[in-house]
Specification:
The chain has helices spanning 2-14, 21-33, 37-50, 58-83, 93-113, 119-137, 146-160, 169-182, 193-200. By secondary structure, it is mostly helical. The protein has a single domain, classed as Orthogonal Bundle (Farnesyl Diphosphate Synthase), CATH 1.10.600.10. Helix 4 (58-83) packs antiparallel against helix 5 (93-113). The chain starts with a helix and ends in a 23-residue tail after the last helix. The relative contact order is 0.18.
């Protein structure tokens, strides 16, 4: 899927200045091996409200990359917390690089979304993740798809608000249903995803715009 390639490339560009090389290479490998559902969802949401050129422009790619990086970082954190490789593997070099990669991806994702309308939701997503992890460690019941539900909602918000449009209730509901269907082991995004996103926005005949009618808002990395 073209959108998946675009989201992956945007994520790689966003960490091109990360050093040392082994850390950057680990992040690239994680992006290469991951499904791009959050990034594609952000791009598809932008296209749904922006028309044929709804995914043109670096700021849209930055938003997709920001969502994807936050997801990858939190997903890696979740995997490390459950697997705890430092309890069995010596030396701890690989585990330490994994932890550092997770931190860098979340931080870079925050940076990309910092000046967008999705900034508050990004903070809320990370806080919610922390609460869920704490609840799980203390034996309290948590949703197995909570991270995906939060990140997918973040994705549609980041995408639609790039053109000053709030996501419809049906689009938010679609994102939640998608999270439940994919779980925490996301396959590649289905080819039908852009059309499904557009259909979910169809119940908004005159969407309320939050900014300029036709120009996407810039991100923190725009000149």
């Amino acid at each position: 899927m073209e959108a998946a390639v675009r989201a992956r490339n945007a994520g790689r560009r966003a960490v091109r200045d990360v050093a040392p090389d082994p850390l950057r290479e680990r992040i690239h490998a994680l992006l290469d091996d991951s499904a791009m559902v959050p990034g594609v969802l952000a791009l598809s949401s932008a296209r749904a409200v922006g028309g044929p050129h709804g995914t043109d422009g670096g700021s849209i790619d930055d938003r997709a990359a920001g969502v994807q990086l936050i997801y990858e970082g939190l997903r890696l954190t979740r995997a490390l917390a459950h697997d705890r490789p430092w309890e069995r593997d010596l030396p701890h070099t690989d585990s330490n690089i994994g932890i550092l990669a997770a931190d860098v991806m979340v931080a870079r994702g925050f940076s990309l979304l910092a000046s967008t309308e999705a900034a508050d939701k990004a903070v809320e997503t990370v806080k919610s993740f922390g609460r869920d992890q704490t609840d799980g460690q203390q034996g309290r019941t948590t949703s197995p798809h909570a991270l995906e539900a939060d990140v997918f909602e973040l994705a549609v918000l980041a995408g639609t608000t790039a053109f000053g449009v709030e996501p419809s209730d049906s689009l938010v509901a679609y994102a939640a249903d998608l999270a439940d269907s994919l779980g925490d082991d996301c396959p590649e995004p289905p080819d039908s995803l852009p059309e499904e996103v557009a259909q979910a926005m169809a119940d908004v005949p005159s969407p309320r715009r939050l900014g300029p009618a036709d120009e996407p808002r810039t991100s923190a990395t725009d000149p």
